[in-house]
Structures
1.
Amino acid sequence: MATQIAATPILRGEEAMMVIQEAQQKPDEKTQKAFAMLKSEFSRMTGKKVLCDAV
């Protein structure tokens, strides 16, 4: 199977600042609760402990 490699996009100026700000956002309380629920459901269904604590 052939592999296609795309060029890495380069962001400058305002676009770059928007990406940086988005990456620095912290999850809100609703997102953290949803993650905790999914984590416990997955653990219950698989019988395995989920090690990931990050959202």
2.
Amino acid sequence: MDRGGKAAGAWRGAAAPARLLRFGLPLLLALGIAAKPPEISPPAPQERAYRVKGVGLSIRPFKDTTYLKFESGVSVSGEGFSLSAGVVELEIASGAFATVEDLKLPEGGLSKEELGRDPGEVAQRMSRELELPQASFNRSAIKRLSASGGVRVTTPEVTLSTDALLSIDGGQSWSTSGRAQLSRSSGSGARAENYSLAADHLLYDTQGKRAAAEGNIEASFKRGGQDPVRLSAEKLELHIEQGRLKVSGGLKASYGQISLVCREMEALLEEATLRADGAKPGEPGPLLTDAQRGLSLQAGEITVDLDDETVEAVGGVKLDDSTRRISLEASRIEGSLKKQTFLLSGKVSAHDSGHDLALTAERISADIAAGSYEASGGPVVRQGESTFTGERITVTQEKVPGQKELRTVVEVHGEQEARIDMDKPPKLPEDPR
């Protein structure tokens, strides 16, 4: 595309004056766009009008298409939309020009002397007298719209900053080139919502209020006075109004002392819930760690509520407490990271090295902070060299007067059986009396 001269609207070429008169007139016309859907769930077409302003303008007319290039401090504005950039280029169907509004030509036209001069010099003089470049467009004929150089887009929902943007549907959706950042700030107090998203490539749908990002994604989502959820990934799709997020590819997410590593994750930002899954056969599933409490949880699928710090996990569940040397395995688990209480089901096994305990059952309720368990569904409990079975077995830790260490108490309910190895009798606490 030709560059204009330093004066606004400069046109270069042998027939510049005639072309400027022919094609400079329609700059303030009603235009439009033949909508082409974005790659993420196409929205229905919507009419939208824009006003474009810039310091410099160049025009290249062809039989079916006219190219406009606005330069230096360009702004594009419309209802609920504004864009600023160093350069804005438009590719417009030539047949769309229909009417002329508020365009002032030089008084007296061109003299014979001027017609004999260098056409570029004459065009520059005319461009200074024309009230250009400023134009209004709607959506019937713009084939392509691009912006570059410190691009910033603002809508009521988000702010988008990048090096370059391209739209093939009249600003309904934008594709970025170069590192892009999308940010949002809304509400106040407990209902405040702030987030930022940076990626190598980003597609933003202004009508559907969605964003899709790829490549070296770094994002932060914060609600009210809560800690922010921070994440890194390779792919991300965000539904802005719904507050729904889908992330995949080398995902790492963190919230305070809680972190989550997985292949795929979905999140409801308003409800502060994260659901991680997507492990391939033979690969480890999502891994959640709580550094503050020394807990780690791995399973085929993990759901965590960040507000009350509760978790649910299914499929090859394994929970480890590195501080107390406790390991729990099951088909399913639900419970509270904060309280460290969990309900496990489906071929449950528990190993508590700190209390020399091993339990198996169909269901186990565990309070790992207190070292207490309740097992049912064919429970078997081994404590030291002793083995207990029954309909339901509880294990608790009791204080012994005069001693620092707790005593493990096993209670068997229903039909029961106990086997005690007398060659290696369990150590009983001394009677303080």
3.
Amino acid sequence: MSFQAKITEPEKNIEDFNRLYQELVSLLQQQIKYIQQGNIEGMEKIAEQCAGYVEKIGLMKLLDKEQFEAQRLQLRDLYGKLCLLITDQKQKTTEEIRKIRKTSKTLDIYRSSV
């Protein structure tokens, strides 16, 4: 007679949560790396994947429990870092656009005076 451990439903949920959580953390870290490299397209593709993981994790309602406090805080920190990096990238892009517009105006003035 062989012995097989019987996995209860709560244990299965925790296993599923841990798997989804690790995959989400990995995706968020990849997003952070992409935004640091200026790869906005790569970051956006991963954002689509993250949405599915966030939805599944949210439906499990485990992050509200005290035993998952560390995971909740890590996700909050990763999303906070990502938001800061996106804001920084947005400011850099805005500055580049401003420079391009200024250069374009200068060229227009030059062309009209020649």
